[in-house]
């Protein structure tokens, strides 16, 4: 029972819980706040038949609500009925009120029609007034915009692009934002970038025209700048001279007053000329309108593209620089070619310097220095190449002057030009080479035109003319009366004058090189030394070697070189005077003319000896001895007498030569004559010699000895000249006297009578005489008188051969 009662209680408890769940679900459904899905799911997910039970609960709940509604309606029904009754009573009064209101409204409408019309008119006027006010306000905002835009168009039409950009900037920043809602403003806003691009294109086009213009006008700009620099230099030089004159006035007031007055007049004229030139000379700004580049720079700066413009400008100018630096192939042919080349370069850098100083940032000093260094390297390379083609010293000098003006001009604009002056020293060497070539031709012409005879002077005037050209001094000659002859030929003063002209020409190149007087003096002396030691020396050597130059001409050349050598000290004084550098200065170079003329003189002396020997050989070649004659003619040979007469007359010409030269020439001729006669006796082609031929040969040698003893050239001591024939004399005496015993006995002794007779020479000649005796019986008388003499000859031959063999073994 107990368990059954417990189970009944638990079932009852579960039943109560289910009812409570259904109640809660109904409450949730009625609340309309919570979602029904969860509630309904909780009902249907429960035990089976829960749906039926829930529907029963729901029906019970509905019935409860219907009973409550019915109670509510029953409670208010009487009030509703009463309200309907009251409303029916009021309906009649409402009809009357409606009629009255309608009538009142009609009358009111009729009375208010005029007021309404006036009111509407007032409203319309007020709207118009408001609209007009609005329009005026908007027009006041739009009119400045339109005025500015009109101003912009006008500025564009008159090419005031920088002002147009400023106007656009005001439009964009100040005016257009106020009226941006209007369509015309939108059109303006869309057009402004196009206008900016148009301005950029137009300004860039103007810049290109400007670049083309300055490219065309660069040479004229450069020519103008170089002319101004040259005038400034001339002015400074004249001013310096004036200062020197003023200084000199204090030192030599009385003596130099007239000269100073002339200098002042000259200086005044120079200044007046400079003023006239300054009025005529145009500046770079006068020749080229720089406004396009300024305008373009401002425009691009305003547009924020300043860097793009700078890069474009510099790139284009670099291209133009390369074109300017490219010379014409024929530039070296004329000075105008160089002048045009320099003018274009100067014009280019004058423009760049102007742009540098009048703009900010477009061209910088670093950029111009870089451009100049590039250009300078190219210029130096071009000048090196083209100047090497110049063979005319005048053209090289003109080139030097142009380079100096070119360098001075650019230096005035702040560009470094030291490398150009270094280049001038290279060109100076080339200039000296061209001068040397030119003077080589001048010297050759002078030597070819010279007659190589002393200069005749008929009177004092002619004498002074010669002295004015050449520093000649001879007290003995001054004592002689006119007419008289100067020892040198006409080429000497001409050569001296040409050397001075060369010094002047060399000095012209040294001017304006910004070098000290000491350096200029050193350059002049070096170039003069080259002229003397190389050019003049070569011309003299070639002259001496020419076949048409005879002994007389060689003698005159020796005399000429002697006087030119003496004049070298005057050339040194001449250089010192024009450079104002004393010769006592430690670093002063000396002229090498002394060695030049000494070498030429030695060459001429050697040529004299050679030509004398050649002449002697010519006479020897016409000798015609009968080597088999039985006895001599009793007189000397004709060719030899002619030779001696020739030598005698030749040595008379040598009277003007230095004593040693004449003596050496005479000794050389006698020695050569002696050697030639000896070779004639010992000629291998000569097989036989008779005693008669020996006697005839002896007569010729006697004439030679007589000539030597007659002292053809003064200054020989005793019989010095006769010693040239001593070998022949002793040999001939040996055979003429037939003194073999003495020769053989005394051979090898210093006191031997026939010391100069060589055994081989004696043997050769004796064998020729021996061969001759076999044919002509020249020794028949000896055999008849004394047959032992033949044996003696054989013995002598054997002894001579033994001596010769002994000498060869000893050797």
Automatic annotation (TrEMBL):
Q: Where are the transmembrane segments?
A: none
**Domain of life of the native organism:** Eukaryota
Give Gene Ontology CC terms: exocyst; plasma membrane
A biological-process GO annotation = intracellular protein transport
Give all residue intervals belonging to the Exocyst complex subunit EXOC6/Sec15 C-terminal domain: 420-768
Keyword annotations for this protein, in alphabetical order, are: Exocytosis, Transport
In terms of InterPro entries, this protein maps to: EXOC6/Sec15, EXOC6/Sec15_C, EXOC6/Sec15_C_dom1, EXOC6_Sec15_N, EXOC6PINT-1/Sec15/Tip20_C_dom2
Span of domain Exocyst complex component EXOC6/Sec15 N-terminal: 57-226
The function of this protein is: Component of the exocyst complex involved in the docking of exocytic vesicles with fusion sites on the plasma membrane.
Q: Which family, according to UniProt?
A: Belongs to the SEC15 family.
Protein name, UniProt field: Exocyst complex component
- The scientific name of the source species is Ficedula albicollis (Collared flycatcher)
Query: Gene name on record?
Result: EXOC6
């Amino acid at each position: 029972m107990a368990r059954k009662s417990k189970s009944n209680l638990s079932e009852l408890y579960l039943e109560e819980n289910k009812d409570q769940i259904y109640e809660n679900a109904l409450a949730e459904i009625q609340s309309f706040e919570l979602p029904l899905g969860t509630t309904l799911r909780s009902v249907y997910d429960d035990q089976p038949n829960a749906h039926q039970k829930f529907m029963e609960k729901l029906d019970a709940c509905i019935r409860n609500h219907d009973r409550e509604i019915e109670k509510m309606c029953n409670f208010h029904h009487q009030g509703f009925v009463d309200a309907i009754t009251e409303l029916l009573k009021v309906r009649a009064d409402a009809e009357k009120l409606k009629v009255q209101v309608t009538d009142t409204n009609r009358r009111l409408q009729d009375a208010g029609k005029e007021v309404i019309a006036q009111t509407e008119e007032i409203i319309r006027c007020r709207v118009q007034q408001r609209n007009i006010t609005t329009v005026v306000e908007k027009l006041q905002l739009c009119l400045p915009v339109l005025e500015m835009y009109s101003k912009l168009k006008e500025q564009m039409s008159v090419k005031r692009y920088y002002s147009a950009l400023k106007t656009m900037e005001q439009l964009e920043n100040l005016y257009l934002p106020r009226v941006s809602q209007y369509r015309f403003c939108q059109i303006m806003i869309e057009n402004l970038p196009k206008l900016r691009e148009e301005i950029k294109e137009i300004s860039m086009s103007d810049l290109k025209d400007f670049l083309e213009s300055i490219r065309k006008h660069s040479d004229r700009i450069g020519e103008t700048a170089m002319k101004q620099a040259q005038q400034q230099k001339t002015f400074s030089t004249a001013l310096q001279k004036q200062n020197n004159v003023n200084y000199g006035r204090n030192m030599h007031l009385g003596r130099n007053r007239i000269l100073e007055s002339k200098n002042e007049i000259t200086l005044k004229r120079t200044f007046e000329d400079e003023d006239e030139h300054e009025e005529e000379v145009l500046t770079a700004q006068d020749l080229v309108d720089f406004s396009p580049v300024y305008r373009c720079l401002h425009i691009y700066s305003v547009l924020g593209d300043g860097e793009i413009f700078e890069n474009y400008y510099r790139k284009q100018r670099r291209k133009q620089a390369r074109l300017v630096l490219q010379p014409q192939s024929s530039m070296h042919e004329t000075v105008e070619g160089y002048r045009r080349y320099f003018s274009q370069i100067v014009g280019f850098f004058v423009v760049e310097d102007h742009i540098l100083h009048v703009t900010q940032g477009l061209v910088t000093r670093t950029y111009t220095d870089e451009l100049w260094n590039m250009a300078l390297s190219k210029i130096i390379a071009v000048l090196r190449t083209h100047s090497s083609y110049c063979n005319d010293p005048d053209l090289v000098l003109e080139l030097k002057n142009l380079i100096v003006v070119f360098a001075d001009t650019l230096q005035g604009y702040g560009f470094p030009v030291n490398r150009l002056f270094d280049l001038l020293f290279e060109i100076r060497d080339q200039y000296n080479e061209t001068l040397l070539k030119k003077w080589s031709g001048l010297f050759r012409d002078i030597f070819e035109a010279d007659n190589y005879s002393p200069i005749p002077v008929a009177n004092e005037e002619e004498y002074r003319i010669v002295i004015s050209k050449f520093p000649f001094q001879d007290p003995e000659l001054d004592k002689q009366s006119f007419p008289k002859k100067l020892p040198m030929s006409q080429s000497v003063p001409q050569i001296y004058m040409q050397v001075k002209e060369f010094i002047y020409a060399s000095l012209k190149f040294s001017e304006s090189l910004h070098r000290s007087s000491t350096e200029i003096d050193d350059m002049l002396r070096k170039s003069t030394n080259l002229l003397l030691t190389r050019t003049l020396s070569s011309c003299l050597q070639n002259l001496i070697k020419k076949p048409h130059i005879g002994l007389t001409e060689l003698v005159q050349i020796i005399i000429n070189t002697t006087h030119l050598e003496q004049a070298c000290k005057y050339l040194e004084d001449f250089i010192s005077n024009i450079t104002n550098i004393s010769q006592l200065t430690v670093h002063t170079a000396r002229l090498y003319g002394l060695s030049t003329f000494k070498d030429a003189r030695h060459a001429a002396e050697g040529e004299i000896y050679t030509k004398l020997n050649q002449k002697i050989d010519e006479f020897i070649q016409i000798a015609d001895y009968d080597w088999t004659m039985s006895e001599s003619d009793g007189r000397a040979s004709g060719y030899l007498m002619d030779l001696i007469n020739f030598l005698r007359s030749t040595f008379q010409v040598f009277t003007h030569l230095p004593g040693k030269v004449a003596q050496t020439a005479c000794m050389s001729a006698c020695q050569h004559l002696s050697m030639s006669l000896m070779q004639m006796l010992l000629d291998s082609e000569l097989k036989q010699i008779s005693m008669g031929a020996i006697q005839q040969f002896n007569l010729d040698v006697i004439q030679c000895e007589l000539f030597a003893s007659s002292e053809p050239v003064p200054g020989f001591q005793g019989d010095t000249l006769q010693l040239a024939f001593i070998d022949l004399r002793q040999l001939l005496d040996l055979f003429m006297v037939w003194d073999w015993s003495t020769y053989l006995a005394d051979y090898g002794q210093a006191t031997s009578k026939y010391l100069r007779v060589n055994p081989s020479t004696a043997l050769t000649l004796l064998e020729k005489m021996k061969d001759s005796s076999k044919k002509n019986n020249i020794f028949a008388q000896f055999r008849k008188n004394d047959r032992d003499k033949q044996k003696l000859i054989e013995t002598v031959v054997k002894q001579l051969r033994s001596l010769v063999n002994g000498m060869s073994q000893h050797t």
